[in-house]
C-alpha cells in the first residue's frame, strides 16, 4: 500500500498508544507500516512534525465532536451550555487516545488548524455570550488548559488510591479533616469536570460585571 502522510499519522497514533509520548520513534512507526524508516522522511520531516500532526488530528476530531454536541443543544441553550458542550467533547476525544493529554500538552508548538478551530469557536462563543473581548482570550486559554490538565491527571493518575490501615486512615483524617472527612462531597470524575467548567464560567461572568 502506498505510503502517505495520512497513513504515517495513523501508524504514529497506534504506536503512541502503545509506547507513549517519550518512547515513540520513527523506526517504530516505520515497522508498523512495514516500511524503511528513511522512506517516512519524504512525507514527514521527523518525530516533532509527526507529533504535531497527531495532535492536530486529535484537535480536528474534537472540533467535529463539538459540532455534533452543539447541534444537539436546545435552541434556548446559554453560552455557558455551549462552552460546556465544546469542552466536554474535547475531553472525551482526548481520553480516546492513551496519553492524548500529554500529546497535546507537550507536542511541538507549531501552527495547527485543528487547535485554531477549537480556539476560534470558543472565542466566538464567549464573545457572543457577552464577555468583553479583553477577557475572552484568557478565558478561552483557561478553559483549554483546564481540559488538558484535567485529562492529564486522569490518564497519568493511579488506577486506585493507595491502601492504608484503619489506624493510618484515622490519623490522616484527624490531621486533614477536609481532605479525608465527609464535609466535602466525593464526586465522580465526570461530575467534577462538569462542575469545574461551570465554576470557571461563573468566574468569567463575574469579570464581565467587574
UniProtKB/TrEMBL annotation:
Q: Which UniProt keywords apply?
A: DNA-binding, Transcription, Transcription regulation
Pfam families attached to this UniProt entry: TetR_C_1, TetR_N
Q: Where is the HTH tetR-type domain?
A: 2-62
In terms of PROSITE patterns, this protein maps to: HTH_TETR_1, HTH_TETR_2
Its Gene Ontology biological processes? Answer: negative regulation of DNA-templated transcription
Record-linked InterPro entries: DNA-bd_HTH_TetR-type_CS, Homeodomain-like_sf, HTH-type_TetR-like_transc_reg, HTH_TetR, Repressor_TetR_C, Tet_transcr_reg_TetR-rel_C_sf
Q: Which residues bind DNA?
A: 25-44
Q: Report the domain of life of the source organism.
A: Bacteria
A single GO molecular-function term is:
DNA-binding transcription factor activity
Fetch the PANTHER family from UniProt: HTH-TYPE TRANSCRIPTIONAL REGULATOR RUTR (PTHR30055), TRANSCRIPTIONAL REGULATORY PROTEIN (PTHR30055:SF151)
Q: What is this protein called?
A: Tetracycline repressor protein class H
Amino acid at each position: 500500500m502506498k505510503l502517505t502522510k495520512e497513513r504515517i499519522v495513523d501508524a504514529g497514533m497506534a504506536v503512541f498508544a502503545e509506547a507513549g509520548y517519550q518512547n515513540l520513534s520513527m523506526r517504530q512507526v516505520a515497522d508498523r507500516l512495514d516500511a524503511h524508516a528513511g522512506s517516512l522522511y519524504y512525507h514527514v520531516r521527523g518525530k516533532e512534525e509527526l507529533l504535531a500532526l497527531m495532535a492536530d488530528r486529535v484537535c480536528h476530531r474534537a472540533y467535529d465532536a463539538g459540532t455534533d454536541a452543539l447541534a444537539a443543544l436546545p435552541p434556548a441553550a446559554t453560552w455557558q451550555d455551549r462552552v460546556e458542550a465544546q469542552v466536554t467533547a474535547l475531553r472525551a476525544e482526548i481520553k480516546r487516545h492513551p496519553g492524548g493529554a500529554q500529546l497535546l500538552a507537550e507536542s511541538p508548538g507549531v501552527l495547527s488548524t485543528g487547535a485554531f478551530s477549537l480556539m476560534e469557536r470558543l472565542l466566538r462563543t464567549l464573545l457572543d455570550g457577552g464577555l468583553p473581548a479583553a477577557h475572552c482570550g484568557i478565558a478561552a486559554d483557561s478553559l483549554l488548559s483546564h481540559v488538558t490538565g484535567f485529562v492529564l491527571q486522569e490518564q497519568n493518575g493511579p488506577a486506585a488510591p493507595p491502601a492504608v490501615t484503619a489506624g493510618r486512615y484515622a490519623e490522616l483524617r484527624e490531621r486533614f479533616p477536609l481532605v479525608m472527612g465527609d464535609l466535602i462531597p466525593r464526586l465522580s470524575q465526570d461530575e467534577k469536570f462538569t462542575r469545574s467548567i461551570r465554576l470557571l464560567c461563573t468566574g468569567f461572568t463575574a469579570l464581565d460585571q467587574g
